[in-house]
């Protein structure tokens, strides 16, 4: 590891950023400020939350339908307010919410945990950049859930780490982003997990399954995923009404 730069987080903590000589991963020093950073689980500045979840639901529906069809159940780790879980259940996937920091507002009644599996796949969107030990977190999650696929998202940098004033994804004002990936760092992560990596722009899959690079590239594009997701939406039965009936019979 070698030092790259220092910068203020939360407008008060001067923090050193280090880069791995082997894989290129960029991380902060030991994040002692996280309790303060997570006073609010979802950063106020995250105005893209709804749009991002709508797009990721289409992309994930394509991927999960291609890999598993009607089989299995799925867990959204770091599920925030539950929007993604609710969207996937609306499509027809047997999806569950889990988050150690946020409150489930939109998928109440469908809480899960790593121990309540097994799950065929786990999604973890905008989570990797929050982890000080992504290898340990994903490895432990895989052991607990029995999953064969992780669907993740995070922004990548290419070449040397961007200068502090050249990349919005550092999110210095929130203090929540502490780990940053380039393509080689993602591949190193996949290798340590013993999984295949498929990566296109901000969407990344670690899996035991096989996909063609072309299939994944199409499924991870907004326009194509919107079109291709019409297949699972037509062939699966939405859980909107069955979930309502189930919850009406469940004591509050």
Strand tally is 10
Multimerization status:
single chain
Largest β-sheet summary: 6 strands, mixed
Rounded to the nearest angstrom, the radius of gyration is 18 Å
Indicate the low-confidence ranges by residue numbers: none
Gist of the model:
The protein contains nine helices and ten strands. It is α/β, with parallel strands linked by helices.
Written account of the structure:
With 252 residues, the protein is an alpha/beta fold. The protein has a single domain (2-240), classed as Vaccinia Virus protein VP39 (Rossmann fold, 3-Layer(aba) Sandwich). The protein is built from nine helices and ten strands. The chain has helices spanning 34-37, 49-68, 83-91, 134-145, 183-193, 213-219, 222-228, 230-235, 240-248, and strands at residues 2-9, 13-19, 26-28, 73-77, 94-98, 121-125, 149-153, 179-180, 196-200, 203-207. The strands form two sheets. Strands 5-4-6-7-10-9 form a six-stranded mixed β-sheet, sandwiched between helices. The protein has a four-stranded antiparallel β-sheet with strand order 1-2-3-8, with no helix packed on it. Strand 1 (2-9) and strand 2 form a beta hairpin. Helix 2 (49-68) crosses helix 3 (83-91) and helix 2 packs across helix 7. The termini are far apart. The model has no long low-confidence stretch (mean pLDDT 95).
């Amino acid at each position: 590891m070698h030092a790259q730069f220092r910068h203020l987080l939360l407008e008060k903590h001067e923090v050193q950023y280090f880069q791995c000589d082997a894989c290129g991963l960029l991380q902060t020093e030991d994040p002692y400020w996280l309790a303060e950073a997570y006073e609010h689980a979802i950063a106020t500045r995250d105005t893209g939350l709804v749009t991002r979840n709508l797009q990721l639901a289409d992309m994930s529906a394509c991927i999960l339908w291609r890999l598993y069809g009607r089989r299995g159940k799925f867990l959204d780790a770091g599920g925030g307010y539950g929007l993604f879980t609710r969207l996937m259940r609306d499509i027809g996937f047997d999806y569950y919410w889990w988050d150690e920091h946020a409150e489930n507002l939109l998928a109440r009644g469908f809480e899960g945990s790593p121990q309540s599996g097994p799950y065929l796949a786990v999604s973890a969107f905008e989570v990797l950049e929050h982890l000080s030990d992504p290898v340990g977190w994903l490895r432990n999650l895989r052991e607990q859930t029995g999953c064969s696929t992780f669907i993740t998202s995070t922004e990548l940098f290419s070449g040397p780490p961007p200068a502090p004033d050249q990349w919005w994804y550092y999110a210095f004002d929130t203090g929540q982003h502490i780990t940053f990936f380039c393509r080689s760092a993602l591949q190193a992560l996949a290798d340590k997990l013993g999984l295949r990596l498929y990566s296109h722009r901000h969407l990344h899959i670690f899996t035991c399954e096989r996909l063609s690079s072309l299939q994944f590239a199409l499924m991870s594009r907004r326009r194509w995923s919107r079109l291709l997701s019409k297949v699972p939406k037509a062939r699966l039965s939405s859980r909107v009404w069955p979930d309502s009936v189930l919850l009406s019979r469940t004591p509050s």
